[in-house]
Amino acid sequence: MSKHEFFFKIATTADEFEQIHRLNYQTFSEEIPQHAKNEEQKLVDPFHAENTYIICVKENEVIGMTAIRDKRPFSLDRKIGPVEQSLSFPVFFPCEVRLLSVKKEYRNGRVFLGLAQFLIKYCLKKGYDIAFISGTVRQLKLYGQLGFQPFAQLTGTDEALFQPMYLTKKTFDESIAGRILPPTIPFLPGPVQITKKVMNALSTTPISHRSEHYKEKIARAKDMLAKLVNSKYVHIFLGSGTLANDVVAGQLSLESGRGLILANGEFGSRLVEQAKRFGLQFDVLEKDWGQAFTRDELISAISETTSWIWAVHSETSSGMLNDLGLLKEISEKYELKLCLDCISSLGAIEIDLDGVFLATGVSGKAIRGLTGLSFVFHHHEVQPSLALPKFLDLGTYMAKGSVPFSQSSNLLEALLAALEDVNRETFEKVIETHTFLKNQLIEFGFTIISEHNSSPMILTIEIPSGVSSVVIGDILYHHGYQLHYESDYLQQRNWIQIACIDHYDKADLEKMTNLLNRVIAYEQKSTQHTLVNGQ
Known about the structure:
The protein has 535 residues and is α/β, with parallel strands linked by helices. Helix content is 39%, strand content 20%. The radius of gyration is 28 Å and the shape is elongated.
């Protein structure tokens, strides 16, 4: 989609609804004599308050639309009885699609296609398993190309006959519209696109975690992980990054002295919470999100009783990278044990854990394996401790070669396949993508959070005041670009994030940023129009 073409969205403004009523009138009063004509030349649907409208916008003009409603009875229920009774298969979460309309001068198929593709993504995201429509008999071929299938008897009058039809994911996928729909491109910090190689590894026949074959595989995975970050030891846990950080908290509970936790984002704050849950004694050095810690601030926060520091390396919430070199230097100078959350940075950038006491990572982000495994890295020997829950005791894992409990050989196979593709070229690609996107966004005039201390794995954009980050994120998602915007901490700040850890074509990056720019400009203009007109 070039920057000069139309785009699709959910209608939200008074001006968009006004245009919807006029287009509804043009189609279903003037062109198809389903409703009487009137002087206002507007037709407000009787279910307007319950409808969600998908619209096609060119510049500031609504040129196409359709409406979705899930409240029963459907209009089709009133015509043929409960729609389920006319089907040979069960349905669970249906919706009804109505008022499919495109201005005559734009009926070249592309707008209908875009509406259908947006519709199927919207329905899947909402959890609907089937959509019903009364399709005009004048356009049955078009409906078929979009994936709609006829059922039941015709309704309406001789002047305006309609065919009941349904759309499911299966019928859409088999249609022309479905076959040419490109897959959604994720720009998320996780999960990421999973390669066929990794998926094939995941589907291998499971083997016992007690077998020698499994022990050989986990030893190979540990060796690859340790070499990746220059760590002497690493242990693999069945669970998320939160589990790995709890393991670190458990080890810190065995240390004497107080700790210092650094928090300049959501994930630093989560370390604070985890430390509190373990009853650790610590101080907190807190800064605004996206603000870097200075040498003087760090030194001032260290007391005579401080024995360890715990920090996030790549603070995903704001897109910033905390200075590992500075943290190592200060930890060495003041003889502090440095612990790092490397969950977002592992696999995205080069990391040297020499001089780091404990560090954590996961399989499902930049490593590009499947979510479900987490890692704890260290250089020292660790003994089991009865003071800790067994599942969180790093010493227990060390004593048992990382396999004290049941584990998934399938996730391990997927991890091994993913690790084989992590190398220096991977890191260079992440930096290249980050640089390209950053330059594009700055050229468009966007405000980037942590611009001067940015982590190459993600970019954080501040959406202009008056424009909803959720609306923007939804529009991009329904166009096939899945940005990071649904987390509460992002919505509270009206931020959107673009992760750079997948492998992208430059053309896709250009299309995505052009669409993002065009959509935000449109929403800003719509907001200003609403303020001026007091709507």
